[in-house]
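Below is a filled-in request sheet from our internal design queue. Each sheet records the structural input a requester submitted and the sequence that came back. We keep these sheets so that new team members can see what a complete request looks like end to end.

REQUESTER: design group, bay 2
PRIORITY: normal
MODE: inverse folding
CHAIN LENGTH: 979
BACKBONE (tokenized):
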């Protein structure tokens, strides 16, 4: 497409080379002093074709405290390339003002008059001739320049900013828009043709020109339907400015209007999202939040959706060839251009890593836009049939299932190579003429553990095994029939050997030349839109899941949950994946993505434990009732659990949960002492029942916890040696002060029935209590006639490694133990362990039983867990793997100042994030963002503590050293790349 013949402004194709101004800094300082009367220091800023400086007012020398040091920035000095006209500069100023007026919530770097009324735009005589020099408004906060990771929220905000610019500039006209820039994607084909010769690598040069030619053809198919308007044309990561609030930065403004021109309106979005692609962890699907956000404000037409990704490819190609040219014409003096070469190549690589046809359909699916382009689409064009010779008896074919809900993948069977072939051959051996795996349903067998990226789990076709050699042929020619061997080689005559896997696909005529048989779930909707289901063409049942959109499925489930599940029952993450399977220390999403579970202390044996499942299932088949019946399991479990406790604790109550266990422990203490007051510890969480909630003081779990305690609960200071009132050696003062508080209560006529505390300060982040703390406080409560309750719901059952119970680390024995979580490995089971004498006093309250606590099934679950601890060395693994993990995390702390401390023992650890190691300001928002980024990298992690700034590292006790190392590697990556 050629530019109008009457172009008034700059014409790139007439100008040829465009070297950037390179005035000496001292000369620019003199210009600023002469024209604006400002004494400044200048810091160079990068620019492709202009020259920019950050200007700081120099502090007068008479200010002795900081004489000679530059002050805060007062503006940006921009020396415009002499090729640009006065009309063009005026258009830029008007565009900036127009956006500022239309979007007052955004910060816009306008060119206005100085405080004294002097203009901020002048033409100066310089050593390089007359040059336009402007003093632009400085916007604090910085940009997104650099390779750091951009969160989905940041990417979405970039799309919003671009949409506001597009809306504001719609209808804007000015003579200065009449220009031809190399960045205008309307002339991208000509720019690539002109500048490709500058690329020094012939192979890369060919990749760029070929990709640009294909993209240009795609754009030209809809070019006449693309609206044109004034555009900023450079709303990239370099040119959006951010505000940082509570540690999280979000774009809220824009700078650099030097490329304002008239172009396709959709170019604004294309250029914005292309700049995301070079950032850490970014890939094509990373831009979808920006596309959705843009579309929500400024809807895209079907034609614009069809043009969008080809324009991204063209932008990448233009950046690559332009960058190489600029480096050469500036002779290496332009550091900005030189440093951008690698960045620009990454943008191009990512833009072309997924075919435009796939991304176009993926974007259309995300926006709910019907393309209706009339071109071939697998959903409308397919063979009337696929012939099989000899034709199998469909009634006897076997539909194989290796999805995450299949019984065939239980107990980690999906990790063993060859499962699909073994299942298929077993079906053929049993007499089936054909076995097959369906299209679109994610296959767990294709996934992998310990991966920061999702695996290719979604099939674009079907897999078949025939009992006899069978020829596969198409009965129509609208779509491409592809028959491949298991190694991906095409079976040219379509004859599949007997008992051999073959892959069959139906591809749309406009599908890419190579359609992968398995694709990643993030891009699956795009690929599936370009293929059809061969099962239907063969005469089999269609795939149960044709769209392949796991993210939408997960979002739909959250919406259903929100309609019927009480809102207060929160879920992890704002946009959680749908998890339907677990294995050991791994959780699996419905898309086949495997996550490392580093937070689930409910399951010490890990997920999907075969022995536990078998034992409970057998018991459920025979008997499950309440503990008032006489059966063996409840007796054996009670005996073994009591034997795990130190003397004189020998009597067991069984309940359903940790909350019930804590509640019952308190009730037992009240009954045994005849008192009503209880002493608890601040920042602790004990449960949700009335009594357990009453003694819970964690404001993270209940923001009103401190104001809503009943009058019978008395809280003592949290014995936190890291961020409490007493730290380090001073932490020894917590115990005597707590003991004195107990004695004061007794002296006032309200002696406590009990003192309750976690034996290891878990809810605050896995922090050990100060040495001797429980010994002194237990002594005080007993001295006044009360009981010592140990909340072992989290710390108990070997999680500390060296000790089975948390109180052992303190060298004490409580009067009452409350335990749950680990006891049933996720099956509802909790217990209270105390002495026979204390338990007998509870009889004064009447009888007690729990319908399912101590039931045959829950007792069997408890016994199986104890067997595993005995036979599988889980406590030893907690000690050894936990020590390894903690040492690795402590090494991270030496490199990343955000880590204030690594707390804990065994596999009961906490990584505490602070913004300042001196003030210990909690990095609450950063911690949440880090958890979100870890999930993207395949690690499930959540925050804890009253400030929600501690990673609660409490994985299943079967966690391996390999898993621990993967977690550390991903955390290191997040802290290095950003969140």
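RETURNED SEQUENCE:
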């Amino acid at each position: 497409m050629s530019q109008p013949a009457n172009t008034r402004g700059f014409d790139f194709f007439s100008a040829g080379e465009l070297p950037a101004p390179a005035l000496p800094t001292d000369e620019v300082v003199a210009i600023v002093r002469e024209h604006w009367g400002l004494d400044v220091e200048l810091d160079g800023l990068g620019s492709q074709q202009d020259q920019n400086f950050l200007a700081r007012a120099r502090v007068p020398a008479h200010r002795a405290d900081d004489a000679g040091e530059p002050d805060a920035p007062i503006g940006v000095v921009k020396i415009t390339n002499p090729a640009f006209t006065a009309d063009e500069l005026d258009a830029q100023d008007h565009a900036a003002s127009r956006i500022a007026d239309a979007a007052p919530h955004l910060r816009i770097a306008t060119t206005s008059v100085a405080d004294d009324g002097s203009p901020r735009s002048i033409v100066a005589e310089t050593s390089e001739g007359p040059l336009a020099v402007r003093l632009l408004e400085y916007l604090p906060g910085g940009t997104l320049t650099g390779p750091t990771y951009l969160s989905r929220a940041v990417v979405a905000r970039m799309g919003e900013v671009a949409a506001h610019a597009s809306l504001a500039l719609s209808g804007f006209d000015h003579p200065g828009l009449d220009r031809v820039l190399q960045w205008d994607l309307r002339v991208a084909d000509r720019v690539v043709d002109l500048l490709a010769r500058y690329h020094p690598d012939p192979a890369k040069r060919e990749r760029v020109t070929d990709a640009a030619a294909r993209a240009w053809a795609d754009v030209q198919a809809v070019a006449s339907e693309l609206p044109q308007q004034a555009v900023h044309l450079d709303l990239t990561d370099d040119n959006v400015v951010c505000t940082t609030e509570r540690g999280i930065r979000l774009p809220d403004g824009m700078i650099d209007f030097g490329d304002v021109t008239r172009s396709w309106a959709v170019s604004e979005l294309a250029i914005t999202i292309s700049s995301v692609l070079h950032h850490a962890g970014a890939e094509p699907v990373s831009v979808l939040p920006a596309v959705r956000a843009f579309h929500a404000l400024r809807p895209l037409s079907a034609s614009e959706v069809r043009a969008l990704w080809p324009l991204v490819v063209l932008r990448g190609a233009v950046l690559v060839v332009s960058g190489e040219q600029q480096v050469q014409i500036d002779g290496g003096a332009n550091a900005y251009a030189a440093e951008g070469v690698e960045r620009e190549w990454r943008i191009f690589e990512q833009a072309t890593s997924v075919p435009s046809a796939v991304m176009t359909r993926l974007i259309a699916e995300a926006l709910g836009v019907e393309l209706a382009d009339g071109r071939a689409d697998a959903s409308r064009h397919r063979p009337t049939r696929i012939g099989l010779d000899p034709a199998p008896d469909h009634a006897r074919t076997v539909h194989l299932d290796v999805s995450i809900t299949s019984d065939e993948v239980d107990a980690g069977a999906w990790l063993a190579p060859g499962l699909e072939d073994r299942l298929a051959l077993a079906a053929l051996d049993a007499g089936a003429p054909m076995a097959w795996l369906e299209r679109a349903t994610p296959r767990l067998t294709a996934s992998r553990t310990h991966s920061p990226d999702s695996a290719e789990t979604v099939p674009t076709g079907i897999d078949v095994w025939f009992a006899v050699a069978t020829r596969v042929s198409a009965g129509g020619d609208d779509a491409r029939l592809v028959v491949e061997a298991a190694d991906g080689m095409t079976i040219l005559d379509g004859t599949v050997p007997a008992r051999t896997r073959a892959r069959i696909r139906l591809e749309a005529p406009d599908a890419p030349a190579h359609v992968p048989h398995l694709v990643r779930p993030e891009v699956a909707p795009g690929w599936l839109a370009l293929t059809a289901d061969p099962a239907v063409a063969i005469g089999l049942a269609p795939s149960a899941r044709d769209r392949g959109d796991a993210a939408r499925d997960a979002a739909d489930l959250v919406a259903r949950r929100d309609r019927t599940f009480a809102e207060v029952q929160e879920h992890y993450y704002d946009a959680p994946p749908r998890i339907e399977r677990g294995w050991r220390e791994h959780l699996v999403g419905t898309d086949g993505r495997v996550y490392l579970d580093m937070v689930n202390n409910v399951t010490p044996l890990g997920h999907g434990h075969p022995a536990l499942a078998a034992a409970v299932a057998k018991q459920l088949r025979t008997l499950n009732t309440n503990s008032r019946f006489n059966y063996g399991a409840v007796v054996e479990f009670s005996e073994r659990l009591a034997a795990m406790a130190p003397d004189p604790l020998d009597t067991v109550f069984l309940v359903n949960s940790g909350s019930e266990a804590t509640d019952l422990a308190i009730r037992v203490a009240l009954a045994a002492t005849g008192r009503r007051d209880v002493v608890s510890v601040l920042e602790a969480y004990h449960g949700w029942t009335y009594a357990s909630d009453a003694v819970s003081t964690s404001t993270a779990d209940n923001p009103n916890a401190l104001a809503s305690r009943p009058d019978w609960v008395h809280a003592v200071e949290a014995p936190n040696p890291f961020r409490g009132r007493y730290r380090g050696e001073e932490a020894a003062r917590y115990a005597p002060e707590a003991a004195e508080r107990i004695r004061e209560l007794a002296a006032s006529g309200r002696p406590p029935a009990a003192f309750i505390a976690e034996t290891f300060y878990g809810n605050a982040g896995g922090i050990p209590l100060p040495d001797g703390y429980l010994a002194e406080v237990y002594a005080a409560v007993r001295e006044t006639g009360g009981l010592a309750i140990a909340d072992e719901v989290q710390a108990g059952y070997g999680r500390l490694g060296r000790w089975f119970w948390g109180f052992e680390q303190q060298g004490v024995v409580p009067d009452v133990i409350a335990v749950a979580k680990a006891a049933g490995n996720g099956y509802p089971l909790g217990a209270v362990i105390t002495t026979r004498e204390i338990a007998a006093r509870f009889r004064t309250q009447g009888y007690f039983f729990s319908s399912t606590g101590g039931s045959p099934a829950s007792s069997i679950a408890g016994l199986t867990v104890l067997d595993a601890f005995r036979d599988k060395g889980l406590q030893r693994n907690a000690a050894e793997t936990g020590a390894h993990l903690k040492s690795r995390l402590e090494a991270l702390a030496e490199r990343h100042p955000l880590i204030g401390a690594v707390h804990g023992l065994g596999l009961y650890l906490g990584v505490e994030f602070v913004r300042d190691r001196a003030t210990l300001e909690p990095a609450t928002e950063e911690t949440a963002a880090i958890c979100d980024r870890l999930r993207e990298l395949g690690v499930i992690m959540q925050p804890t503590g009253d400030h929600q700034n501690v990673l609660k590292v409490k994985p299943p006790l079967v966690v391996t050293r390999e898993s621990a190392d993967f977690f550390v590697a991903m955390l290191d990556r997040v802290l290095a790349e950003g969140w």
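SHEET NOTES:
- The radius of gyration is 34 Å.
- Residues 1-5, 374-379 have pLDDT under 50 and may be disordered.
FILED BY: M.R.
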